[in-house]
Design goal:
The protein is of the alpha+beta class. It has a single domain, classed as Alpha-Beta Plaits (2-Layer Sandwich), CATH 3.30.70. It is 14% helix and 24% strand. It is built from 2 helices and 4 strands. The protein has a two-stranded antiparallel sheet with strand order 1-4. It has a two-stranded antiparallel sheet with strand order 2-3. β2 and β3 form a beta hairpin. The radius of gyration is 14 Å and the shape is elongated. The termini are far apart. The structure holds iron/sulfur cluster (2 copies). One iron/sulfur cluster (SF4) binds next to β1 and α2.
Length: 74
């Protein structure tokens, strides 16, 4: 995972269609034979494109550090 600020996970639904590889601007997914693999040293920006284009909803992307949302006190 290295220093990626976002964690990318894939479920068993993945059918190796390669759509995520075609849409990730950072090239985090690569085809290896019949399989599509997530690079060991991937660096994910959390853009969500792979999630959006995966036809079987196999990908989840979440921040390494939980995001805290503050509300302005009036
Ligand atoms: S787009 Fe989804 S189904 Fe296709 S290779 Fe990527 S994770 Fe697997
Ligand atoms: S969220 Fe964006 S940068 Fe991260 S793996 Fe998916 S397409 Fe690539």
């Amino acid at each position: 995972m290295g220093g990626s600020p976002f964690i990318v996970e894939r479920g068993p639904e993945c059918c190796n269609c390669c759509s995520c590889a075609g849409h990730c601007v950072r090239g985090n997914f690569v085809r290896e034979g019949d399989l599509v693999v997530l690079k060991q040293d991937y660096l994910c920006s959390g853009c969500g494109e792979c999630v959006k284009w995966c036809p079987v909803h196999a990908i989840t992307v979440r921040p390494v550090k939980p995001i805290t949302v503050y509300r302005k006190v009036r």
